[in-house]
């Protein structure tokens, strides 16, 4: 009986969602096109970063040094008259990096005098600045090694074997460093989160605003049923959306692999949806109208999305933040979802995170249900 | 346009806001909170990447090699691992982001003048972090190699170390970050957050304005009145623009004094551009509100529809020029990218009207287009 009532309520919630064409269209758009555009469009990589050189006289070592800065990372656009012009070009954003090559680099190298090459980088975009710095240092260090080896060979009578370390870097889990895998999955998690928080809150508060909640409360249904029906409706929408997203966009169009157990993944998504809906319902008990819901959701969701380890790995955050974020469902789901999809993690390996997710969900749901009952109990 | 009508409507809307105390408090509190939490928390630079080592060699050279990684500011040494299984598990669990594997006979090979292979396994999940880390791994390795060359000469040719260093010294590299000397996120993130928050907050505030009345039915009062559509929309918009303008001032003050960001450019450019940007952002919310039928839809569309472009397609993460054509098109659909150029331009780069007038004009044009669109699509007649 209890379950039949719940099912009836569940259908009612689904029907309200189904009858809102704009809402449906928006949900489909965010689960498909938006993920495709973000997944394929944004690369977190240097792409022909425009670069200028201040070179008072051209010498062979200077040219060699510059030759190492090539596409696709850098695009040497030519030499600039002096540093002042270079600064102006950096200011206007026409160049992202200007190199000041000292005069008589060849002579200094020949005599073994200490010389320095100065590089000025646009640091306003930190992502880009970090990439430029890392690549420039790598290129420069390699250039130095090659220079020294060459000089050594020139001075030696017979070719010498020189001890060198050959460091072979291999990427795991995303072997070709495909940004599209990372971007599309992160974007998918973002959409799930917004939907899971906002929809149940909106569904609940709408009834409060219109007063239909009073009608529901005089029926023989209890508050748990009312809340569960809303949550289950949203979970179903999310599971459908994830399916469409995975099998219409992420796998066929973007080519991301599904390495782990798909059943485990779906179960985790459902669990995550449950706990994130708990946050939504909790918001609904605090808010009196949708305006408040929106602002409260905004307040919680932006930090959660940007700080919970989706964009930056947890270890990059300050310690206080990591401690705080461990209480958000998204922190755990990020690890779970990515680990299943890309690292083929198993249930045993993800146990702690899954348990944490379930615990957070249960606490939020019970708290929401308790507040809900208190607000409306006669 | 009828100024009296606009004033009356704006007053009515303001009164409605003022009477909803929680809403009013949230409207001012949320942007500030965002600025505090995200400004401190959103770290985009790559430092302290956790790493582990599996050193199968234990010779003096391998210890020296490993120490260079341990002492690097970019990496955070988390300990020694033994065995393929342990390495795989550590990477899989995300305990460390990369593992350096030094095979046996490393020191021996080097002292015999041979090439010694090592392997670095990097967790590729965070593509950008993996790239930056990989660059630093190679740079550290190359520097180690330079020392090996010098060392080799000293030992083999019997030359005094000073002479070797004199003859074979590497060229120094001095990197300077303009606009953001320490390449700290905060400096560029704080002004960047103003762009993000001032896109989302005004849009969210206006998004329910019209649709709320549609749902409650009070919109029929307006349908039956002689108030014109344009007056109705402006009346709905103005109170939220006022709230947002106050928020803008607070956020700007925070960027300057809490995060210590410099302000080198033209204040008038910033003021004009920001005000237009608020109108544009409020216009987005209003447009959604006019189009949809339920508050739930308005909330969802506005939230996702401003968050994604504001964060991903604005240039905050990556510059627009590095995106695919479709992504660039999406970026151009929103005023966020132009506002970011203005914000970074005036805060960090000291730019003024001569540089930024096209951006300001585009933001203004955007505001006009969005508000006109809302006006055109807003009907007094009930459809169906």
UniProtKB/TrEMBL annotation, chain A:
Q: Which residues cross the membrane?
A: 21-42, 181-205, 226-253, 265-286, 293-311, 323-342, 354-372
PANTHER family with a match to the protein in the record: INNER MEMBRANE TRANSPORT PERMEASE YHHJ (PTHR30294:SF47), MEMBRANE COMPONENT OF ABC TRANSPORTER YHHJ-RELATED (PTHR30294)
- A GO CC term? plasma membrane
Keyword Cytoplasm assigned: no
- Report a single Gene Ontology molecular function: ABC-type transporter activity
Q: List the signal peptide residues.
A: none
Where does it localize?
Answer: Cell membrane
- What PROSITE patterns does the record tag this protein with? ABC_TM2 (PS51012)
Give residue ranges for domain ABC transmembrane type-2: 150-375
The reply on keyword Membrane is yes
What's the protein's topology in the membrane?
A: Multi-pass membrane protein
The family this protein is said to belong to = Belongs to the ABC-2 integral membrane protein family.
Which InterPro entries did the record assign? Answer: ABC-2_transporter_component, ABC2_TM, ABC2_TM_bact-type
**Mind listing the UniProt keywords for this protein, alphabetically?**
Cell membrane, Membrane, Transmembrane, Transmembrane helix, Transport
| The name this protein goes by in its record | ABC-2 type transport system permease protein
UniProtKB/TrEMBL annotation, chain B:
Question: Phosphoprotein: is it a keyword of this entry?
Answer: no
Any one GO MF term held by the record is:
ABC-type transporter activity
| CC annotations in GO | plasma membrane
Q: Which domain of life is it from?
A: Bacteria
A matching Pfam family: ABC2_membrane_3
Q: Where in the cell is it found?
A: Cell membrane
Instruction: Enumerate the UniProt keywords alphabetically.
Output: Cell membrane, Membrane, Transmembrane, Transmembrane helix, Transport
The ABC transmembrane type-2 domain sits at 153-381
Q: Which Gene3D superfamilies match?
A: abc type-2 transporter like domain (3.40.1710.10)
Q: Which family does it belong to?
A: Belongs to the ABC-2 integral membrane protein family.
Q: What is this protein called?
A: ABC-2 type transport system permease protein/ribosome-dependent ATPase
Q: Which organism is it from?
A: Sulfurivirga caldicuralii
């Amino acid at each position: 009986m209890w379950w039949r009532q719940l099912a009836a309520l569940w259908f009612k919630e689904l029907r309200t969602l189904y009858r809102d064409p704009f809402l449906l269209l928006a949900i489909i758009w965010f689960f498909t096109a938006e993920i495709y555009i973000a997944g394929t469009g944004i690369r977190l990589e240097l792409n022909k970063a425009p670069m200028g050189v201040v070179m008072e006289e051209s010498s062979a070592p200077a040219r060699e040094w510059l030759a190492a800065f090539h596409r696709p990372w850098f695009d040497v656009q030519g030499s600039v008259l002096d540093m002042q012009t270079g600064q102006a070009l950096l200011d206007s954003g026409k160049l992202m990096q200007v190199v000041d090559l000292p005069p008589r680099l060849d002579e200094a190298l020949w005599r073994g005098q200490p010389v320095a090459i100065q590089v000025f980088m646009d640091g306003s975009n930190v992502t880009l600045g970090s990439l430029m710095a890392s690549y420039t240092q790598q290129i420069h260090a390699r250039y130095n090694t090659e220079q020294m080896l060459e000089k050594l060979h020139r001075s030696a009578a017979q070719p010498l074997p020189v001890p060198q370390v050959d460091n072979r870097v291999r990427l795991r889990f995303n072997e070709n460093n495909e940004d599209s895998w990372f971007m599309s999955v992160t974007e998918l998690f973002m959409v799930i989160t917004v939907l899971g928080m906002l929809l149940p809150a909106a569904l609940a508060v709408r009834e409060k605003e219109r007063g239909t909640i009073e009608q529901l409360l005089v029926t023989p249904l209890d508050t748990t049923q009312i809340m569960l029906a809303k949550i289950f409706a949203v979970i179903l929408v999310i599971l459908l959306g994830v399916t469409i997203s995975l099998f219409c966009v992420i796998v066929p169009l973007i080519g991301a692999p599904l390495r782990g157990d798909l059943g485990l993944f779906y179960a985790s998504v459902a669990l995550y949806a449950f706990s994130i809906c708990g946050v939504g319902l909790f918001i609904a008990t605090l808010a009196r109208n949708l305006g408040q819901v929106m602002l409260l959701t905004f307040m919680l969701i932006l930090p959660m999305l940007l700080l919970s380890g989706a964009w930056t790995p947890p270890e990059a955050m300050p310690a206080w933040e990591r401690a705080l974020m461990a209480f958000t469902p998204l922190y755990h789901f990020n690890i779970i979802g990515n680990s299943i999809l890309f690292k083929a993690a198993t249930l045993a390996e993800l146990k702690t995170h899954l348990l944490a997710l379930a615990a957070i969900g249960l606490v939020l749901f019970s708290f929401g249900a308790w507040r809900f009952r208190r607000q409306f109990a006669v | 346009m009828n100024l009296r009508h606009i004033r009356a409507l704006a007053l009515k809307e303001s009164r409605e806001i003022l009477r909803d105390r929680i809403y009013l408090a949230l409207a001012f509190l949320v942007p500030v909170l965002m600025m505090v939490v995200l400004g401190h928390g959103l770290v985009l630079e790559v430092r302290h990447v956790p790493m582990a080592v599996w050193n199968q060699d234990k010779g003096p050279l391998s210890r020296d090699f490993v120490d260079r990684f341990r002492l690097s500011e970019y990496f955070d040494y988390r300990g020694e691992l033994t065995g393929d299984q342990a390495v795989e598990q550590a990477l899989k669990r995300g305990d460390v982001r990369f593992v350096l594997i030094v095979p046996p006979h490393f020191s021996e090979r080097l002292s015999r003048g041979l090439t010694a292979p090592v392997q670095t396994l990097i967790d590729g999940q965070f593509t950008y972090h993996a790239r930056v880390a990989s660059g630093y791994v190679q740079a550290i390795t190359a520097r180690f190699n330079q020392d090996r060359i010098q060392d080799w000469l000293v030992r083999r040719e019997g030359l005094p170390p000073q002479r070797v260093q004199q003859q074979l010294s590497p060229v120094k590299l001095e990197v300077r970050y303009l606009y953001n000397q320490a390449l700290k996120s905060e400096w560029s993130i704080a002004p960047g957050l103003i762009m993000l928050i001032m896109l989302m907050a005004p849009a969210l505030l206006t998004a329910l304005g019209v649709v709320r009345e549609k749902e409650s039915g009070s919109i029929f009062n307006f349908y039956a009145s002689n108030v014109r559509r344009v007056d109705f929309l402006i009346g709905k918009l103005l109170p939220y623009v006022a709230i947002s303008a106050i928020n803008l001032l607070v956020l700007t003050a925070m960027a300057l004094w809490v995060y210590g960001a410099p302000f080198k450019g033209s204040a008038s450019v910033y003021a004009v551009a920001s005000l237009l940007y608020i109108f544009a952002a409020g216009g987005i919310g209003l447009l959604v509100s006019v189009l949809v039928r339920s508050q739930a839809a308005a909330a969802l569309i506005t939230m996702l529809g401003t968050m994604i472009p504001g964060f991903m397609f604005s240039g905050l993460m990556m510059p627009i020029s590095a995106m695919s054509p479709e992504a660039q098109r999406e970026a151009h659909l929103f005023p966020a990218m132009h506002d970011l150029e203005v914000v970074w331009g005036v805060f960090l780069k000291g730019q003024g009207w001569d540089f930024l007038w096209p951006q300001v004009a585009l933001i203004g044009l955007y505001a006009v287009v969005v508000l006109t669109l809302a006006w055109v699509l807003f009907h007094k007649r009930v459809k169906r």
